[in-house]
Amino acid sequence: MSSPDIAGILDNSKELDRLRKEQEEVLGEINKLHRKLQSTPEIVERPGDNSLLKLKMLYTQAKDMSESEVALSSQLLGQIDALLPSGTQGQHRRRIEGSEQKKKRVKADSEVPRMSPTMRSHLESLANLKGEQVAARIIQDDAGKDAGKDEWFVVKVIHFDKETREFEVLDEDPGDDEESTGQRKYKLPMSHIIPFPKRGDLSTSPDFPPGKNVLAVYPETTALYKATVVQARKRKIDDYVLEFDDDEEAQRLVPFHRVVPLPEGYRP
Asked: How buried is 167 (Cβ within 10 angstroms: 0-12 exposed, 13-18 middle, 19+ buried)?
């Protein structure tokens, strides 16, 4: 074990500590701006206000810091593994093979320190969706003609598991066809869920320009389909004028809190 190797570990540890302190500061700024927008949501409509732009910049900065933290943590793990005697590693493996419960505890303990403040805040916000309606991607696995097809519905969040990062949701209105057996529950990954904008918090509502493709709830249903924004809105609380794909009606009005970004790789 050489002094330069130890020095490298200590230097990276100091850098990691500095990075995490900066993350905490950025997270504090994000939370401060969130409180400001929640108390005075109308501020975003004032001429010259840059609150949403500032929020975007802060989240971009937090994302970059989180990625740097992961890279630095991986480098530190590699440096430490290189210094550990092979016998020590073998003894460690034998100790943790004692029981399944021990393995789970060691795994959990090793992951917690590497989770950035930004990710912890994000997971907490997802857990707070309990009881709210969200857009959910459900892949039909039946043997029929719709097998493998992506479908998006309005569902209610029952629970979010921070460990597995899975949502348990309830489809409260699965349809009135003959095969329907009432409300259905699903377990879905984070990538299959899109929160709706909040009516009372306009900072959560994107402003989609004319010509933009979006995913929106079709009027008088709980299903979401691809649509195109037809005209600009005067205020963020105004409904969107949309044209749905394969819709006989030319244009339809949809509330802003029922319109979300079109997911990448969307398959109608």
From this structure: buried
pLDDT tens profile 169-192: 999 887 655 455 578 999 999 999
Phi-psi category of 247—alpha, beta or left, where left has phi over 0 and alpha has psi -120 to 50? beta
Per the CB < 8 A criterion, the answer to whether 264 and 254 are in contact is: no
Strands 259-261 and 240-244: unpaired
**pLDDT tens figures, 85-101:** 655 544 444 454 555 55
Query: Which residues are paired to 195 by β-bridges?
Result: 134
One-letter-per-residue 3-state SS of the chain: CCHHHHHHHHHHHHHHHHHHHHHHHHHHHHHHHHHHHHHCHHHHHCCCCCHHHHHHHHHHHHHHHHHHHHHHHHHHHHHHHHHCCHHHHHHHHHHHCCCHHHHHHHHHHHHHHHCCHHHHHHHHHHHCCCCCEEEEEEECCCCCCCCCCEEEEEEEEEEEECCCCEEEEEECCCCCCCCCCCCEEEEEEHHHEEECCECCEHHHCCCCCCCCEEEEECCCCCEEEEEEECCCCCCCCCCEEEEECCCCCCCEEECHHHEEECCCCCCC
- Lookup result for tokens 């900066």: 22
For residue 216, the model assigns a pLDDT of 96
